[in-house]
Amino acid sequence: MTNLQPALFDTMFNMRAMRRLKPDPVPADMVEQILRAGQAAPNGGNAQAWGFIVVEDPAIKKQIQTYYAKAYDELVGPHYASIIENMDEGPDRDKFERQVAATKHLTDHYHEAPLMIVACLNVGPNGANGGSGASIYPAVQNMLLAARGLGLGATLTSRHMIFGKDVDKILGLPSGIMSFAILPIGYAEGNFGPVGRGPLKDIVHKDQWGQGYF
């Protein structure tokens, strides 16, 4: 990128997942801006079959956190522990352990985020399919960008979907409506910084898989 890159690129390249949030309330006008950004996203056929739940009730947040933690304790945590056990000592292991610690912190304090935005989609009587996410995750990304642009910390979480039916019941979702992501949002405890990604040449192919583009 050149020195003339627009602010949008600065936002995208410095939108690290912020898993440590302060309990301070987020002003209502900021919440509305985030939601408007989500509503502006592309979606299949412009059907706009989405819905967004702003969760601020401590009791509801705690109920959701219970399932979020259950998924960590039963599946995610043991998986991470297995990975760490098989890693050699060194910078890579240290970096991964820090990431796991941040994930565990979010798990334990999930319900303490001042607000959660739950991104839902009307999947109809047949349920979700392989293309369903295309009509809701662009809205999620827009809301993450908006939060970052407003100086707020946020991260995309979808672990609750392991117990999706239970969480959707807590949220009062009617039949045919399904939650796809929960965004805990608040003022970040840490500093924003660049996202950590590998070399582009490792993931980009030309014309067919396996042919190098760069």
Radius of gyration computed on alpha carbons: 18 Å
Strand content: 5-15%
Low-confidence stretches: none
The spatial strand order of the largest sheet comes to 1-2-4-3
Helix/strand order, N-terminal first: HHEHHEHEHE
Domain module tally: 1
Provide the CATH topology.
NADH Oxidase
Secondary structure tally, helices:
6
Describe the structure in your own words.
Helix 2 (28-39) packs antiparallel against helix 5 (137-149) and helix 3 packs antiparallel against helix 4 (91-109). The protein has a four-stranded antiparallel beta sheet with strand order 1-2-4-3, sandwiched between helices. The mean pLDDT is 94. By secondary structure, the chain is α+β, with helices and mostly antiparallel strands. It has a single domain (17-189), classed as NADH Oxidase, CATH 3.40.109. The chain has six helices and four strands; from the N terminus they run ααβααβαβαβ.
Supply database-style keywords.
four-stranded antiparallel beta sheet, NADH Oxidase, alpha+beta, 214 residues, 6 helices, globular, 40% helix
